[in-house]
Amino acid sequence: MTTVAEAPPAARKPDYKARARSDRTTVYLLLLPALMPVLILSVVPLLRGIYLGFTDARAGRNVDTSFTGIENYRELMNDDLFWSAFRIGLVWSFAVTILQFVLALGLALLLNQPLRFRGFARVMALVPWAMPPVIVGIMWRLVYHPDAGLLNEVLYRGGAESLQHNWLGDFGTALPAVILVGVWSGMPQTTIVLLAGLQGVPRELHEAAAVDGATTWQRFRSVTVPSLMPVIVAITTLDFIWNFNSFGLVYVLTAGGPGGRTMLPMLFAYEEAFRYGNYGYAAALGNVMVVIIVALLAVYLRRRLREANV
Amino acid sequence: MNRTGPIAKTLQYLALAGYLIFLGFPLVWMLSTSFKPPREMVEIHPTLIPHNPTLDNYVEAFTEQELGRAALNSLQVSLSTAVLTVLVALPASYALARFKTRLGTAALGWVLLSQLFPFVLLVIPLFLILRQVDLVNTHVGLVLVYVVWALPFALWMLQGFVRNIPRELEEAAAVDGATRLQVLRRVVAPLLAPGVVATSLFAFISAWNEFFFALVLLKSPDLATLPVTLARFVGVEGIARLGPLAAGSLLATIPSLLFFAFLQRRLTSGSLAGAVKG
Lengths: 310, 278
Fold this sequence. Notes:
By secondary structure, chain A is an all-alpha fold.
């Protein structure tokens, strides 16, 4: 009844045709309330954002914005702050994604075992996910606090007083400290996705391998990992993109400091746009990020397609 | 897989304990901080269990004018977002689930893809567009943005619920002479209630937790939502304010926790895991 519009013309009967037409009008009417706001507040801004990246738009000067072509990009290429933000963004995204993946895989394997407290641990594993990112940032500032913080106190009690630190304020430790928080808050989602993937691995494969005398490690390598591969590729790609775009968590933790050591691309763009009013320049940075993300997605999708073809 | 030796078992429990400590300690610390009086905040060696636990921080978080107002703002914005999102998503998701059109497929694809774009690219033009219609620095403008932002997942979730309603039920009612509207009201609506609840809760929480758009679009402190106000507290306030900050943060987390408790079963089974980005 619903796929009439898709049927070959020859197979259509006249009354079907009329019905399909009235159906289509209904469908458009039903979709309209959702698609209009999406069009106005998502498609249009996105296109306009892309255009802005090729202009010299500035705060308080929206009338005589002029098209400047690749000027912003030339400037970006010569901007040390941009390169620094880009590098830090890559380090942050790779580090968080990889650490998160390794820990989450371990945890997922663990939570897939018949252990006591497994149900409790599974529910607990969701907690960081349930917390607003800003609150996670505030919580970890309490942990990293140089005087009233948990971490320094633990080090003191453990006799490692010399390691006490102003974790978020120190040039050397700020980025690692922030990365750890990123891992903490992103782990649940990755864990749950991997756990769902593990539960989809056919039991018979494991049993057959066990009968053939494969060790746990061999079974992990030749049964679990291959069957999990599509899930692994999907979640790490998404994690990387999400991390590359992240803002709130680091904004609350360090606001990009000390001395720009944790200045992620999004923080840099935010500063450029809303502190200095360089809308065009910030939009250009957004465009560069989109190109990177699209490139990543292309790699990911190609991989998926190749898998689907096999 | 079941034949693990006692050593392996012990290691597994150790790993699990290690994870729970990594997970739980920051939370416990925030909880402990929220019960500490200002004096204990400046002690050289803070303790996990407060010497003189107090509820003052919670009282202060509740009564402090700024935080109270921020909580009300958040409530107002999140409720409006939840209601509007469902109103807009409901017809669309019915259309997406029941009729296959190219427009519908394209819309769903777009809506999912747009989640991967960096917000900077959206927020500057959004800011400019909302300014043109005088909606910058208003809750209305923020709610509109939040609705669009919550729509992808709302559509995804609701159309799944619609698909779960057997088409035969609708057809049977139609054969019995019910008009289309009657079918929707009497057959579809009641069965869709759980989906509507879940969707509105999701929209509520995504608005309640959101920070970036609120930071950019709301200029006056009177209008600021809870995350923005709390974030400002960490930035400028001194050490004595850590207590109310921790208390306020914990209170701000409660709606989220309730939501995840509600969704827990579906989340742990992984069916929604890929879709919710915190």
